[in-house]
Design a protein that fits this description.
8 strands; about 10% strand; 2 domains; single chain; two-stranded antiparallel ribbon; 6-stranded mixed sheet; alpha+beta; Alpha-Beta Plaits
């Protein structure tokens, strides 16, 4: 990961030095560059005022980057990320400097390749600084070959930037599946909107640079709408794992439980806890502990149905609601999760660390009829699993299923019985 970081950053710096030495600086290019940076600054300030969600977020700044790549020499594609990410760092939210540097370098390299290709095929347009053009004199070739070139270049920039970022994420978290890092339907829609807005701004600049004032409110409105949606999502999810947070999970779980009670459907609740997580943090550091949380969350998510409700309950605990799951199904799912997490091997300090989990299971109508009772029963079963040696699954046994006997037998019956671990198949 460190070697990859330096390759990307040094590559962008070398390209910048080369372009500074070979590109002729003109007043027209500087004016256009300044106008596009100014519009981008307005969007960044809007982000600051609205607020930024924690973690990875999407924006529409590419609507201003793409005209820079298509209208101006490649030098400016390398320059424009510098002031924008500096604004991000000092005006929006401070974060680790190397992350800002790496993000700027990926945009710079992707834009540099895009700009070089655009100018080599001659499909771009020249910004008009003198006022409105006569529409009859507008270059018709841009509506044909030039427009197609712009679309291809815009798609190329998106592809290159995504590949550079995804490669970095994959190197830092090898357990993350590729399908989670590439486009989903929402990402594809955002990238398409960004491309369309970028081409619109490019065309307006070709008619007259003054017309960017018309494009600015449209881009700003879409930008704010996108951020508002992400802020709403961020309020429902855990920032580290991307799962539902405890409050949202409880709300959705109560709604599912109410529906299940009305129609008489079975349902199960699982509580999962990472074994010896404090020891992992103390030994390898909290950053590696975060990677463990992310890896466990991803593994759990990919072993569940879309109808299952999974969230992070706090610390190293996760909760899962399984609609339409009877005792046998709940046991199978819990054991599958335990087994899959146990196969994880996370690299750290030239070695690998194996992670295990303990799971407590509770069934609707058997161990409780409301969410609090189910959570209490599953939590009790979880701690019995830990007391029994960890890396296993336990289910509580209700008092009405407990046979009569000495007080110690009755206490065990009202607590929990183990069926997980290596004996799960027999159970």
């Amino acid at each position: 990961m460190i070697r990859y970081f330096f390759v990307v950053v040094v590559g962008a710096c070398v390209a910048l030095v080369f372009e500074l030495a070979t590109t002729a600086i003109t007043a027209a290019d500087l004016i256009t560059f300044g106008a596009l940076v100014g519009c981008t600054t307005v969007c960044v300030e809007a982000m600051r005022r609205l607020g930024m969600p924690a973690g990875i977020s999407r924006d529409l700044l590419g609507a201003w980057w793409l005209p820079t790549f298509l209208l101006l020499p490649p030098l400016y594609a390398l320059l424009i990320p510098i002031p924008i990410y500096a604004l991000h760092q000092f005006r929006v939210r401070r974060t680790l400097v190397f992350r800002r540097v790496f993000n700027a370098a990926t945009v710079a390299l992707s834009g540099y390749v895009t700009s070089t290709l655009s100018h080599s095929v001659g499909g771009g347009v020249t910004p008009n600084l003198t006022g409105l053009s006569d529409f009859t004199a507008y270059p018709l070739e841009f509506s044909g070959q030039g427009l197609l070139t712009s679309i291809i270049c815009g798609g190329l920039f998106t592809l290159l930037d995504t590949v550079l970022i995804v490669t970095a994420v994959r190197l830092s978290a090898p357990e993350t599946p590729w399908r989670d890092l590439l486009w989903d339907r929402e990402d594809l829609l955002v990238d398409t909107a960004e491309l369309c807005m970028g081409i619109m701004v490019t065309i307006l600049c070709g008619i007259s640079l003054v017309l960017v004032v018309i494009a600015l409110p449209s881009v700003l409105l879409l930008h704010r709408s996108l951020l508002f949606q992400q802020l709403q999502t961020a309020a429902r999810t855990d920032p580290k794992t991307g799962l539902l947070n405890a409050t949202t999970w409880q709300s959705e779980a109560e709604a599912e439980l109410s529906r299940a009670l009305q129609v008489g459907r079975p349902m199960a609740v699982l509580i999962l806890d990472i074994d010896h997580f404090k020891r992992v943090n103390d030994t390898y550091g909290h950053l590696f502990g975060d990677q463990v949380l992310i890896g466990v969350a991803n593994t759990i998510t990919h072993q569940l149905r879309q109808t299952d409700v999974v969230g992070r309950f706090g610390g190293e605990e996760f909760v899962v609601l399984l609609p339409d799951a009877d005792m046998a199904e709940a046991c199978r799912v819990a054991e599958r999760l335990r087994s899959r997490v146990g196969r994880m091997a996370l690299p750290v300090d030239e070695t690998t660390v194996t992670i295990t989990i303990s799971v407590g299971v509770a069934l609707l109508a058997v161990h409780g009829r409301d969410l609090i009772e189910l959570m209490a029963a599953a939590d009790l079963a979880l701690y019995r699993a830990k007391d029994a040696g960890r890396d296993r699954v336990c289910m509580p046994v209700t008092s009405n299923l407990t046979v009569s006997g000495p007080p110690d037998v009755r206490r065990r019956g009202s607590a929990a019985r183990e069926f997980g671990g290596r004996s799960a198949a027999a159970e």
